[in-house]
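Here is one chain, start to finish.
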Amino acid sequence: MLPFELQIGLRYTHAKRSNHFISFISIVSMVGIALGVMALIVVLSVMNGFQEELRTRILGVAAHLEISGPADRLTDWRDVLAQAKQNKSVVSGAPYVNTQGMLANGDSVRGAVIRGVAPELENQVADFAQHMKAGKLSDLKPGEFGIILGGELARVLNVYPGDKVVLLSPQGNITPAGVMPRVKQFTVTGIFEAGMFEYDSGLALIHLRDAQKLLRLGDDVSGVRLKLDELFRAPFVTRELSQSLNGQFYITDWTQSHANFFRAVAIEKRMMFLILLLIVAVAAFNIVSTLVMAVTDKQSDIAILRTLGARPGSIMAIFMVQGAFIGVFGTLLGVTSGVLLAFNLETVVPIIERMAGMDLFPADVYYINELPSRLVWGDVGVIAGISLLISLVATLYPSWAASRINPAEALRYE
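Its structure:
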């Protein structure tokens, strides 16, 4: 059998009241908590989706970890790669050559990062294959001086596969007229779109051998790129390799080279959480109002219970049950609706776009054609827990005030 405090508290939540305004405020409190919890779950799911989408697009072009040599020149890279692969977290690796240059086509000139890659190894550390819009990475052949451009870079230069572009390298040739930039003509063999403006507008790929020949590196490279079995272990693997590799190297991972992107998303996620939590807090203050009016309305009932032997703690528990019911029901409603909405955003957003008559996320601006959503059950648990805690705290003062009512004073005018 349920304790009488619980029975009376639950009875107060659904019994007909002479003051219907109290019932109205209770409903408003439930709806407010539900809306706050739902908004928190949906917004954090969207933020998680954006974070994952951003990470996927960056790591589709960048590597999990890079090892480079002093002055951006690494000798005996095969030995370095072999040492790095001894780490159990390293899955594969590939050499690369990095330089900067100017690409020109007629009057169109654009600066870009020129990356020399080995096509047969590059696909093991990056996902260029899925980003190719024209051609493929294997079209880069040593000695043929082919080049693959980012989509935005190709658009600015107004070139298509088969067209020629001129690369001006800052590593110059010494001539009687002075130092002249090194110039080489390349044939566009492919175009990629990673969905990141930084790469699509400023990255070009050439074959590793052509890059070595252009920069006169011989068999040297700029460094090696590594892929890990778990991308979130990158900082730990960086520390392990810095201790195990023999020689002087610069080791950077994706969390360092793109720290600003992920730091900005993380800060925005925290701020959105705090801002939307205020909705739950405001709804919880309505619980205070509800219970204060309920205590005033039930003073004679409280006095009778006290004269029958109920302890102050029991009176306090009765009204805490009433307030907790509002918080629990509102939280459950919010969690249910929030989870359902987070799982069905790809269906809901198009409906909103049709009703509004506008495209909320145009692909030419955001590089995405749908709102990404990734529900993390840990976030749901934290949101539900905080909502319940705020609701419980809101019941303390009115319940304490009810337990302090003097039966004689309450019954004086009855």
